[in-house]
Amino acid sequence: MPKKEIPILLGEWWDRNPMDVQKLALFTGAAPNVSDAYTINGQPGDLYRCSSKETIRFPVESGETILLRVINSAMNQELFFGVANHKLTVVGVDASYTKPFTTSVIMIGPGQTTNVLLKADQPPGRYYMAAHAYNTANAPFDNTTTTAILEYKSAPCNAKKGKSSTPIFPQLPGFNDTATATAYTAQVKSPTQVKVPTVIDHNLFFTVGLGLNNCSIPNSPRCQGPNGTRFAASINNVSFVFPRTNSLMQAYYQGQPGVFTTDFPPVPPVQFDYTGNVSRGLWQPSKGTKLYKLKYGSTIQLVFQDTSIVTVEDHPMHLHGYDFYVVGMGFGNFNPSRDTATFNLINPPRRNTIGTPPGGWVAIRFVAANPGIWLLHCHIDAHLSWGLAMAFLVENGVGKLQTVQPPPLDLPRC
Predict the structure, then answer these.
(1) Which of 96, 206, 218, 406 has its CA 20 to 30 A from that of 17?
(2) Per-residue pLDDT tens over the stretch 310-347
(3) What is the distance between the alpha carbons of residues 196 and 207, in angstroms, rounded to a whole number?
């Protein structure tokens, strides 16, 4: 039982308004500028210029157990996180309990949360908490490290200088250490046996990844992507376009035509070697506001397949309105006749955000028991803006508890 809880909010910092960074990228069609720093609870820490005075410090008593609620609120970057000389016992992810396991480092993607227990069982002193990038794409990234300090209240001071001793630094994996990230993710499981859907109504296969749109005027101010193109992203070659005139929910329940269609493809329109050399003719996705319709209570298996278009990458995929069970993952192209046999249908972890292994696949299962329209998207903010999203339309069931309730009569209008 922890004596106290500490929220650890990991973030990114730009030396300008982040919305301006995003707007510039959308205007030019190029990738957004990488961040200038990472932060822990809003502060960059000792390793950046002019920020050491505000470095976050967490005082602890020797022997006490602390619950760290670690949240990756970064816009575009997955992160490794650790605490020098201290083991972390993972007990929860994405608001669901997990079977406890001990690790020296966690990997956490944007939108994910991880609860860890830390016991202050080291010699009284000062220890850095630190986070830096886990980067899987062949693209520039912020290769800096943010720090905070775990400070034992009984730590001795340096008598000569009248200052505390220099904190000990943790050993974090290299930015491209996919083996460590994969091994960590594989350890996350539910604490007991869970009820995973075994009879599947919808067997979906979604390719996720980047693309490039050709420009009518190459190398113009609005065409600054690779080789005179604009960056795009898609699921099953459909780059999602957000509605501009009305919300999807309003359009559906008010019967307004022309806002969306329900013909989102359950499998890629064209099959290809997803993680090999992809023909340039498949790099440009089509644009559309396409939904996939599900009956209330139907069961879904969804395999996310990363592609090597532009670059392979770990895409943290997030589904609104649902938790799901992560039943399997692997590298290369998903092979149902081979890979389905390895699925964990006993105690898979329950999550709401899961990353695709770079150049690999991940499989989830859930029951469509929450009516409404729910966005599925990559939690890397730039990828969402480029169209790496779709939405499920879950129809009403029977009775009030299985039906979307209308907005109250006094709901303020926009």
Answers:
(1) 218
(2) 999 999 999 999 999 999 999 999 999 999 999 999 99
(3) 23
